[in-house]
Specification:
Keywords: Dioxygenase, Metal-binding, Oxidoreductase, Zinc
Pfam families: LigB (PF02900)
GO molecular function, one term: zinc ion binding
Cofactor: Zn(2+)
InterPro entries: Extradiol_dOase_DODA (IPR014436), Xdiol_dOase_suB (IPR004183)
Number of helices: 10
Radius of gyration: 17 Å
CATH architecture: 3-Layer(aba) Sandwich
Structural class: alpha/beta
Largest sheet: 6 strands, mixed
Shape: globular
Order of helices and strands: EHEEHHEHEHEHHHHHEEEE
Length: 260
């Protein structure tokens, strides 16, 4: 069984499900290039908790955790099965690493999970286990979460972090778009790519102080924290491949990273 890479996927707005743009092609290409996983564990920026929680549902619901979008979006279902045995295995790894993790037997798949997975594996035939992130904890905590889960990559599990390389929804009202990108987006993209390429984990953990326009790119951390889960799951000093999937609304960088 080949060791799988880990992934970080920028999932964009819920409308990515109906208007996927370049990310559809990039994820389809990635899916075709990856060994087929036996299961997926996905850390999503839209499931927040004080301590790590692992979803153990046998058949996770498709959660429409948004308001005011077209009716067609609420009709979408992603009926992938769960993987209770994988959830138990992930929980054991987290607890064994000294993390106060718990199991949630009812958690479904929020749009941070099902929107990108629907583009990556549209048949919804690979079992999925969601993982929460901790918005009050720092990147180092999430790197430790990922490192605890790294053995899963040798067990046929694809570990994914789902968030967004830039995420400032307050700037939607600033009139940015395809013809006018927010000035902080590309410098932040470039800094992350450079630091990942150099294996400079210390700088990445300190991104709030070291990255250009960090506060503007991420007024809050939750959409970048899954990057550290994916990075940690890839082991020490992994190769990082950036996959450019464009910029939505002039503010949401849709970068994908493949680690390892």
């Amino acid at each position: 069984m080949p060791t799988l890479p880990s992934l970080y996927i920028s999932h964009g707005s819920p409308m990515t499900a109906l208007q996927p743009g370049a990310v559809r092609e990039r994820l389809a290409e990635l899916s075709a290039d990856l060994p087929r996983p036996q299961a997926i564990l996905i850390a999503t920026a839209h499931w927040l908790s004080a301590q790590p929680r692992v979803g153990g549902a046998a058949q996770p619901d498709t959660v429409h955790d948004f308001f005011g979008f077209p009716a067609a979006l609420y009709d979408i279902r992603y009926p992938a099965p769960g993987a209770p045995a994988l959830a138990d295995r992930a929980l054991q790894l987290l607890v064994g690493a000294g993390l106060q993790a718990t199991l949630d037997p009812r958690q479904g798949l929020d749009h941070g999970a099902w929107v990108p997975l629907r583009l990556l594996y549209p048949d919804a035939d690979i079992p999925v286990v969601p993982l929460s992130i901790q918005p009050e904890r720092d990147p180092a905590h999430h790197l430790a979460v990922g490192r605890a889960l790294a053995p899963l990559r040798d067990e046929g599990v694809l570990v994914i972090g789902s968030g967004s390389i830039t995420h400032n929804l307050g700037d939607l009202r600033m009139g940015y778009g395809a013809e006018r990108e927010a000035p902080y987006v590309r410098p932040f993209i470039a800094w992350v790519e450079e630091r990942l390429g150099a294996g400079d984990v210390d700088a990445l953990l300190d991104y709030r102080r070291q990255a250009p326009f960090a506060q503007r790119a991420h007024p809050t951390d939750e959409h970048l924290l899954p990057l550290f889960v994916a990075l940690g799951a890839a082991g020490t000093q992994p190769a990082a491949q950036r996959i450019d999937a464009g910029i939505d609304h002039g503010i949401l960088a849709m970068d994908i990273y493949r680690f390892g």
